[in-house]
Amino acid sequence: MHDATPRERFTALVQRGEADIDLAEAALLIAAEAYPRLDVTRHLAALDRLADAAEPRLSGATSDLARARVLIHFLAAEQRFSGNQGDYHDVRNSFLNEVLERRTGIPITLALVYIEVGRRLGLPMVGIGFPGHFLVKLAGVEDIVIDPFFGCILDEQACAERLRSVVGQEATFDRRLLRAATAKEILVRMLRNLKQIYLQARELKPALACSERILLVEPELAHELRDRGLLYHQLECYAAAQLDLQRFLSLVPGDDSADAIRDKLIEIRRHGGTTLH
Predict the structure, then answer these.
(1) For the residues of 208-237, what is the DSSP string, one character each?
(2) Domains of the chain by range and CATH?
C-alpha cells in the first residue's frame, strides 16, 4: 500500500468533525504540496517546543489579560514572530513551515502560531475572520482580541478603526465581527490568500490546486466552483470547466456573474465540451 499523498491526508483531515481538525497539521499539508520533502511531524514538534518554552512564563499570570500579554511577549518579542511588512505578498508567508522557520508571515499564518501554541498551553485561542486582517482572541469571560501581525492587544476602539480603514469611514463596528472562525473557515481563507498570490503571478496550476482544496473543505461553495471552472477553462480542461460552471449556475442562477458564465459555457461547447443536461 502506498504512502498517502499530502492531498489524500488533507482530504481525510478535513472530513473530520470541526473539533477534530488539527489546524497546524492541515496547514502543513497545504504547504507539503509546494514542499515535497516537508516533514510535517518535525514542524508540529517545533510548535510543541514553543509551547514548552512558554509554559514556565505563564505560571505567574493569574488573569486572562495577563496570560495574553505573556503569550504575546513570548511569541512577538522573545521568539520574534512578526508580520512581513516588507514583502507581504511573498508566497512563503502563506506556508506554516516557512513561518515557523523565518519567524515572519501574514496575519492568518501568524494567527495559526498563536492558536496552536495557545492550544498546547491550555489557552483557548480562536481565530477571527475580521475584514481585511485576520485576528485571534483569547476566549474568556471578556474576549481579549490580539493582532499577531503587530504583536499587540486591540480594544474595541482599535477594532472599529481597523474596520473603517478597510470598509470605509461610514462602517459601524459590531462585536459579531469578532465571532470565532471555524477550522474550515480558517483553512478556506488560508487557501484563498494563497490562490490570490498564485493568480497574481499567473501560476495557474498552483492556483487550481488551491481551488481544489478549498472545495475539499467546502464542496458547495458556489463562487469557488465558478473560479475553479474558469481556471479549468484557462488550462483548456473544458469538460471539467463545464461541470463546475454548470454546478455554479444550478446553485446561484441569479448571481451577478451568471450571465457571463452562461456565455462562457457557450464558448466551452464550441471548444468541444460535452452537452450536459
Answers:
(1) HHHHHHHHHH-TT-HHHHHHHHHHHHHTT-
(2) 6-178 (3.10.620), 183-195+203-270 (1.25.40.10)
